[in-house]
């Protein structure tokens, strides 16, 4: 349009030249669009020239038979060009209005378009889940019982540190190490967690009798330090009784070369620290299978925990008055997780300032002077290493086809940002509940004395759900995904591709339809289906090769 305006102004100025006017008059005499009685007067000539131009412009859009074929072709091309520009403009506007993060945004509420439900919305396709079966269970009668504890190479003792799920992994690894060393395992102690300040003992959460009996063909396990060892205070305090140089993800050979001689010499040794101190692909397959046996068969929660979890799961399946499926959502957006991630999230200037102070106080070495954090936050979001916000989770679930009526059990701590942060998720999926809303205060009071017991309830309700959705990494999510895979891959476990989602949320030209297509196609293979293992794989999330057999 700018070029057209520029050419028109040049033509107007050129007509003021006497020579050009004479040439123009001569041309006009032969034109069928100019009357034969051409006037000599300049003013009259200008008026006719103006009318002449108007008639030429009008002829672009009329079927006047006097218009030359050349002008008809120009008018057709011009019209098509205008239509094309208009269509492109409308398409761009439509895409911008329907970008996934706008979704008809109304304050803090998101309204995304409806998406048709897929046939496999609530379970993985049957044809994809029948090729593998679990095979880490104990084979009764196949192996003889182990020799008495005084005939083993000695005793090992560990403190299982961290939260419930980190402790669970440590217990599995302790049994495996005892097998590698042919040592007797003293029942692990659940060390007090610095965050939760929990004093739970092994017998407060797990069935000790079942644990010892189920593993009697694999490892000799005793409940306490033997009576003949009188100086119990030495364990974990004396360097003579503690192995402290175990590297992370150590191979089995490291324990044989470095730990076994000291166990044989001292008879009782403590291993500290013991978080992630045994590798995966650098230990014999039968050791990995033993770890699965401990995790999926030997470690059982106490009966009252199992019963309460079954009751909560049953209430989730009957919230609509008839049988309904339910989703379990592990929402990791607590203040500590947001701070530790060092990612940037939407919020007011005051919120961002408070978060900066919190990070500076809790992680001063990583915070430094704060100048590098913006670039770090961008990089982590690009790589998909930031926790998903509740609003982002809502948009992803809607794009997958889950309707507003979906029943969702939320396993989460105190969400950072409170109700305002939860509003987009709760408004799009109003049937969100927690164990505190499903159970009475009296029912939960018996579990409150041990924070680990409450975590166990969340774990079991999520494990029993029809669909499990994680929003960030961690032992809780990977243990649930692994267990659901071990149970046959039929149960759907969604692990969002946070890198792709971050790219889509940040694209101002991404429309709703292509966003839905990206979400559906990308997550077809991220739902807990059978997946071959690879070097340095995580046994707890994918137990396929060592712990499952071809059906």
Secondary structure topology:
Elements: H1 2-14, H2 18-29, H3 42-59, H4 69-97, E1 132-134, E2 155-160, H5 164-181, E3 184-186, E4 189-190, H6 202-205, H7 208-214, E5 221-222, E6 242-243, H8 252-266, E7 268-271, H9 285-298, H10 303-317, E8 327-330, H11 335-341, H12 349-362, H13 364-367, H14 373-382, H15 390-400, E9 408-411, H16 418-428, E10 432-433, H17 435-438, H18 441-448, H19 451-463, E11 467-470, H20 475-486, E12 492-494, H21 498-505, H22 512-522, H23 544-547, E13 548-550
Keywords: Carbohydrate metabolism, Fucose metabolism, Glycoprotein, Glycosyltransferase, Membrane, Transferase, Transmembrane, Transmembrane helix
Transmembrane segments: 74-94
Biased composition (Basic and acidic residues): 45-55
Count of beta strands: 13
Indicate how many domains the architecture comprises. 2
- Taken from the alpha-carbon principal axes, the silhouette is elongated
The percent range for strand residues is: 5-15%
Helicity, in percent? 40-55%
Coarse structural class: alpha/beta
* Helix count, DSSP H or I runs of 4 or more residues: 23
Radius of gyration: 36 Å
Biggest pleated-sheet summary: 6 strands, parallel
């Amino acid at each position: 349009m700018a070029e057209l305006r520029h050419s028109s102004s040049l033509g107007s100025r050129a007509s003021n030249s006497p020579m050009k006017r004479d040439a123009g008059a001569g041309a006009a005499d032969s034109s069928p669009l100019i009357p034969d009685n051409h006037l000599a007067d300049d003013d009259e000539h200008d008026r006719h020239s103006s009318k002449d131009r108007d008639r030429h412009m009008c002829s672009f859009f009329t079927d006047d038979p006097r218009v030359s074929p050349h002008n008809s072709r120009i008018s057709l091309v011009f019209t098509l060009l205008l239509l094309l520009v208009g269509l492109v403009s409308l398409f761009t506007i439509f895409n911008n209005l329907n970008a996934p993060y706008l979704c008809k945004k109304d304050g803090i509420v998101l309204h995304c378009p409806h998406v048709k439900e897929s046939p496999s919305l609530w379970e993985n396709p049957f044809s994809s889940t029948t090729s593998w079966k679990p095979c880490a269970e104990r084979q009764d009668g196949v192996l003889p019982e182990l020799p008495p504890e005084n005939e083993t190479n000695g005793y090992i003792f560990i403190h299982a540190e961290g939260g419930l799920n980190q402790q669970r992994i440590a217990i599995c690894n302790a049994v495996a190490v005892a097998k590698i060393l042919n040592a007797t395992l003293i029942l692990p102690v659940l060390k007090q967690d610095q965050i939760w300040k929990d004093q739970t003992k092994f017998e407060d959460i797990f069935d000790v009798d079942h644990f010892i009996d189920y593993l009697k063909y694999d490892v000799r396990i005793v409940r306490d330090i033997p009576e003949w060892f009188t100086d119990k205070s030495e364990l974990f305090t004396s360097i003579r009784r503690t192995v402290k140089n175990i590297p992370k993800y150590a191979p089995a050979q490291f324990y044989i070369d470095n730990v076994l001689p000291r166990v044989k010499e001292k008879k009782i040794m403590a291993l500290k620290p013991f978080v992630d101190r045994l590798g995966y692909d650098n230990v014999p397959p039968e050791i990995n299978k033993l770890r699965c046996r401990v995790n999926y068969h030997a470690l059982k929660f106490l009966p009252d925990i199992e019963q309460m979890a079954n009751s909560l799961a049953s209430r989730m399946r009957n919230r609509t008055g008839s049988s309904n499926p339910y989703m379990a959502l592990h929402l990791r957006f607590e203040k500590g997780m947001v701070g530790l991630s060092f990612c940037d999230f939407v919020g007011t200037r005051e919120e961002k300032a408070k978060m900066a102070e919190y990070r500076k106080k809790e992680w001063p070495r990583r915070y430094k002077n704060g100048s590098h954090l913006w670039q770090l936050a961008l990089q982590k979001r690009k790589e998909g290493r930031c926790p998903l916000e509740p609003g982002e989770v809502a948009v992803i679930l809607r794009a997958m086809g889950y309707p507003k009526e979906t029943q969702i059990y939320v396993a989460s701590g105190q969400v950072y940002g409170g109700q305002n942060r939860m509003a987009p998720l709760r408004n799009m999926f109003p049937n969100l509940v927690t164990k505190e809303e499903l159970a009475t205060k009296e029912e939960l009071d018996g579990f409150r004395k041990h924070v680990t017991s409450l975590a166990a309830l969340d774990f079991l309700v999520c494990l029993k759900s029809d669909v499990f959705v994680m929003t960030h990494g961690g032992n809780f999510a990977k243990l649930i995904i692994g267990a659901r895979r071990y149970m046959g891959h039929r149960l759907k476990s969604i692990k969002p591709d946070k890198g792709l989602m971050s790219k889509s949320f940040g694209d101002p030209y991404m429309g709703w339809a292509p966003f839905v297509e990206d979400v559906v196609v990308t997550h077809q293979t991220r739902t807990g289906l059978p997946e071959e293992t690879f070097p340095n794989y995580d046994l707890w999330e994918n137990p396929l090769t060592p712990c499952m057999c071809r059906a």
